[in-house]
Design goal:
The chain is α/β, with parallel strands linked by helices. The chain contains nine helices and 15 strands.
Length: 301
Amino acid sequence: MSDALNLIDWGTTNARSYRLDADFNVVDKRDSGLGILNVPGGDFAAAYAELTAGWDGKSRAILSGMIGSRNGWFEAPYAPCPASMDDVARAVVAHPERPGIVFVPGLSTTNPAGRFDVMRGEEVQVFGALAEGRGERLLCLPGTHSKWVSCRDEAILNFATSMTGEAYDVLRQHSILKLSMEPEAAALDGVSFDQGVAASKVTGGLLDSLFGVRALDLSGAARPRSMRDFLSGLLIGSEIAAMRDMFAVDGGVTVVGNATLNDRYIRALHGYDITAEAVASEDATIRGLIALSRRVSWPNQ
């Protein structure tokens, strides 16, 4: 089996594949729209061949994300929290016909609010971010379904999910608030966003504040320049307020996302007087998959 390694971060709508040499250097990278819901006929073997075309077909491969779900190529069941990197490495599942291909399991937990919760794919980013430090840490992974993850050293202790990104899309496109949404702007209107974060602190709760977005637009008084950014700030601020109450944030928060979301979340966290640092999610994914690959007991080796 080749000493080279293929990494694939394989989600619902997109897939990103990386070719690494024997020294774990990325020598090729591909972005694709072949998320698990976009694979024709569910032929994941053909999709894998496309994602790795021209690479050595005998290379080891470690796949994370929804490709390991019950709707993916082969299911890797959720591993329970707390879970260390070694725990997850031991729980990878090898493809029954192609044992050099392994699937990273997702994680499950009962979160601090007492609700069952799951993640799949984010655990790799967490491990990649944790590679740069030890001790107690709280991570926020913003996105369609934002994850807040409590960690110690290289172990994930607990986590909770907030549907902030999805709520933003639904509200601005399919609710009464769409009447107040102007066209998307290229740059963030920081003043309007900060006003939204401030509105998340007002007594009355999120549902009252949401209709307040429409009412503020109709009033014409002190209307934010961008109601989209106001709504974004309101939702992200409300998420932070809820998670601040659920988790200890004394040591600050590490935000692991793309540049746009990292900037928004760090700005909102500062609005709550919470210190924050940013880690690029793609870098964290690569580091996490490499770290896991070093600990996997590869079949046929």
